[in-house]
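Continuing the series of single-chain predictions for the mutant panel. This is the parent chain; the variants come on the following pages.
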Amino acid sequence: MHHEVRFPQYLNKPFQVLIFESDDMAFMVIGYILAQKFGGIFWSVMFLLPWGYGRLKNRYPRGFLRHTLYFTGIAPLKGYPHFFQNKFID
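Parent structure:
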């Protein structure tokens, strides 16, 4: 039995919708939720938040958001020791 599977042309290229990557879209959704709840200036925040995040993201290496969330204790990195662990046993 032969199954065809689509394989991406560029493995290191992130998923995009128009010009926004998936993490940019997450910030846009947060802005949209705030705009739905509070209205007014938050409609512009829906576009300014991912734009500002994109400018910040371009200054740092890939994956800095995940590491920042780990460092602040918001999201754990699975398979890695805790940030403050200083003794390791083999």
